[in-house]
Write a structure and sequence with these properties.
Distance between the termini: 24 Å
Number of helices: 11
Number of strands: 0
Shape: globular
Largest sheet: none
CATH class: Mainly Alpha
Structural class: mainly alpha
CATH architecture: Orthogonal Bundle
CATH topology: Hypothetical protein af1432
Order of helices and strands: HHHHHHHHHHH
């Protein structure tokens, strides 16, 4: 798959856009740059963001009985969620306004008005941060956005969509499955769906 990205129209062949909007995003230089960014690292041995997005899209296709509209939402979230990692501020202390999820949300506001899509893009890592904070007995990175209670309060209106994306995103690469198992135990409002066998 890595070689595919070196071919003409490699991103299109890899990600197989299904809608006019997905195709339009892949035609944007800034978006393409983000998808082609990345080196192999913990959690993402595949390296390039586009290869991770392909794994997430494959997981979406494994969700049993997924309604078409929700599939469209999840695909759009997958396309955008990590595409702005290259632009993220990694200085310490972190500026959470420049987290890649926040940057992706701002970008996507020009392309969709679906609040559920935008909110999941923005907060897609927050369940992981809440798990991490609880595991280490620390304050969450941002008390406003990174605690489980605040995440549940904010995302209650689309919690199943959030969960499905979190699962599809987590069950990729060599990500630890502990945050996902924890989330499925802690959040009573979701319907747990099997996608891949948890390790």
């Amino acid at each position: 798959m890595k070689r595919l990205l070196e071919e003409p129209h490699g991103l299109e062949k890899l990600l197989q856009p299904e809608t006019v909007l997905e195709s339009s995003l892949l035609a944007l230089a800034e978006f393409r740059h983000g998808l082609l960014w990345g080196e192999p690292r913990f959690g993402h041995p595949e390296g390039k963001v586009a290869l991770h997005v392909r794994e997430v899209l494959d997981n979406i296709d494994l969700i049993p009985g997924l309604p078409g509209f929700q599939r469209h939402q999840l695909r759009l979230i997958a396309f955008a969620h990590d595409t702005f990692k290259y632009a993220e501020d990694r200085s310490r202390p972190r500026d959470w306004q420049k987290h890649h999820g926040r940057l992706a949300r701002r970008f996507m506001e020009s392309y969709t008005s679906d609040e559920a899509i935008l909110d999941v893009i923005e907060t897609h890592d927050d369940a992981y941060y809440a798990w991490l904070a609880g595991r280490h007995g620390e304050q969450a990175p941002s008390e406003k956005f990174k605690s489980l209670d605040m995440l549940l309060s904010r995302m209650d209106y689309c919690m199943q969509l959030y969960y499905l994306f979190f699962k599809c995103d987590t069950q990729t690469g060599d990500n630890t499955q502990a945050p996902l198992k924890w989330f499925e135990r802690e959040v009573a409002s979701i319907e747990v769906i099997p996608i891949r066998e948890l390790i």
